[in-house]
Input
Amino acid sequence: MNTDQIEGKWKQLKGSFREKWGDITDDQLEQAAGKKDQLAGLLQEKYGMTKEKAESALDKWSSQPEDHPTYEAIWNNVQGKWTELVGHFKESYGKTIDDDLKESKGQREVLAGMIQREYNVSRGEAFDMVDDWAFGSYKSPDLAGGK
Output
């Protein structure tokens, strides 16, 4: 989708945006009204991203096909299969501690916090890392029974 399409479909798309970047409030999303520069500013403010990283994250988000599974669906799948996926997560992010991983129960926020702490990355980068991992797991039938 291009910038004009995002602004035109903002009412439908803001739910998808909110799933990905949950720290941004509804009021902030209403004010941004789908405008790329304002959304990028919110990502910079809330997740400590550089302008370039925020714009890149928005481009990646907006280029997803409309039949793309929602982040909520992906994370529900991860949490539902966490005992099977915990080893796969450990392979991807070996610095995490086994006990912490088991206790996290596959919760996105907890995993991102662990990645942020262990890899010394920003909050936004940590969320990107766990979301990329979760989407890869969702797409891999042998790992998560996804698409």
About this structure: The chain has two domains: 3-62, 71-144.
